[in-house]
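User: I've been going back and forth on whether these two constructs are worth ordering. Before I decide, could you fold them both?

Assistant: Sure. I'll take them in the order you sent them. The first construct and its structure tokens:
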Amino acid sequence: MPDALPIAFHFLRPLWLAALLPVAAVVLLVLWRQRPESQWGDVIAPNLLKHLLVKPVDRWKISPLYLVASGLVICIVALAGPTWRRELPPFVEDKAPLMIALSLAPTMSQTDVAPSRLERAKQKVRDLLAARAGARTGLIAYSGTAHLVMPMTEDRAVIEPFLAALTPELMPSPGNNTAAATALAANLMTTESVAGTILVIADTISGDEAAVRRAAGRNNVLMLGIVAPAADPQNALPNTVRVSIDGSDIQGLERRIETSYQSAQSAAFGTRWRDEGFWLVFPAAFLGLLWFRRGVTVAWVIVFAVLQLTAPADAAEASWFRNLWLTPDQQGRLAFDRGDYAAAKELFADPMWRGIAAYHAYDFLAAAESFRKVEGPAGRFALGNAEAQNHAYEKAIKAYGDVLAAQPNNEAAKHNKSIVEAALEAQEEKRRKKEEEGTPPDEKADEMRVDQKQKGGKRIQVQAEDLTTPGAAEAWMREVETSPADFLKLKFAIQAAQTPGPRR
């Protein structure tokens, strides 16, 4: 988009560009004073001076004046904050939530994709989990019915044993109910602050593609088509990536997942312009290296030696010494990056960053105090989070209300506001019950006894006829000596019996 660049490029702190005027004035003054006419004009008459001047042979050289001026110009432009792209606020997560819906339809056992369609799909799930290390990912298996295998988790190690155990034989009924799997995934992702992505891994989808998208709700839907290289996925979604023998399919999925998530975050939280001035540090440092030449290096060594000898020993003087070289925000960011949030909250001058550091240090009172000084929806949203952590629910609700007044479609503020309102209602209900019962709060037990003869918990044996009873799930969870495949097969059978529905 070449035509869009002049509109997007601007400076965050354009007033710094005014510093270019004195630099230009000094350069012009020095050039004027270096002219022979200026140096000898007051001593020799002008009509004689022009005959006495000898012009040297023109040779290309770099004047130190130009180097200094270039370095100053680069530094001033960097301080002005050039920018041409946006970034998300610091509170926003940078990993997109993903729910994988893996088809266990009978056709997934075909071997036109080596070693089989299902095994290749499992391999791609493992590759995707490895590429998204640290991101929250969940897994659903579906055929005629859809079932949760693993809820959202950041630990891929807990997913892999259950992923390896998945086979079509585990499913209660055959079929290919893609809409049911998508609806289950969307229901499990309702607690997410912004929309995520549902990835359908299958050789085909059942029913109408529009029905699948309606079931996904606000979430983005992708499909990884598990088909032979010469074939095309049947009834595939428009946003489909074909399985490949290399990692290009995983890279394509990652890009689409992150793009969709960043778009959803931008709509929910808004964006801010990213300061790109740090790129100019490198050419400025390169120009600074040219000063280390003969006759000048000794002076720099002496300066650094004096600074080292006069460096303060105690913390108070060390802080004064750091102030000579780093701004408070730079010192705070260094402390923040190394995880010293308590020190960072004291060093930051920017109220937003000071509040973020205090929030990470669990000092929610100080965080709320800092966030009150930040104008705009981002500051009010952060204030609401801090007040909620302080159990100041009414203040948090007001802060979220201010965000929604400015951004009515902010899903994160709506979600957090509903949680805080529920917590406030529960708190009020508990207080009303105590007032009605007249029971003093926080009563302790009168007596505690331990049964010394008890050798262990009661062992429950699960019978085949108990598979569809209400207590079967609880009984099976107590039966620890089982394989993931047996556990999933029984779990799916119980869920299918408890929630009958249409199967395709």
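The second construct, handled the same way:
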Amino acid sequence: MAGRNLANVNNPEYARQNLVTRSGGVIRTRFGTQSMGMEIVGVSHLRDAILDMHIVRETMVLGSLEAQNRINSWIESALGEQISRSSDTAIIDASGDGGQSSSGISKSLDDFFNSFHEIASSATEPSQRRVLLQNAQILVDRIHVVNDRLENLDSDIVGQINTDAGRASDLLEKIRNLNEQITRFELGSPGSAMDLRDQRQSALEYLAKLVNFEVRTTKHQSESNPGCGPGWRRG
């Protein structure tokens, strides 16, 4: 058993297993009382069902936050904007020109409204009117570019959802098969399908990164052989 545990030390799906032993009792001989030694009565699985469920629930939370962060990053990129944590202002595509770029809207908006301020201070200057018109056209162009990017992003998000849905469907099928195998293997020997249980827990944790779901016991399953009902997170 020690060799098996060592062989799986780098296997993230594996939970350590220990031999369960008990005393063989004692006997009286002419030399006195002697122990009958120890005998192996089974194998224990160092896995906690409550802890496993906590891991699955927290993985769901992490998966949801990661999905939101990924979408927010895509939107920032499409807008040409990046939110600075060091200030309350939006930085446009952090680059070598001090954090400003021509791909976003913030700088174009600033230039557009600054042009009105310049005109207010020197209303008779024709050059200020030309600058205002130029900045207005630049702002319109930026808005059109961002609109195209957001439309493409919408298609990308739908594609990502379809990919995640396919992965989740495969995992659900794998969990269903594992449940059936565990049920057959443990018929008369509850808790003995330890490797299959490890595989199922790993599949549940991967599934938790994609969808929200509940693990529950059905009437066709034992308490130790739960099924799961998903609630889609990104669809």
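Notes on the second construct follow. The helical segments are 2-7, 49-79, 106-121, 126-185, 194-208. Residues 86-102, 220-226, 229-235 have pLDDT under 50 and may be disordered.
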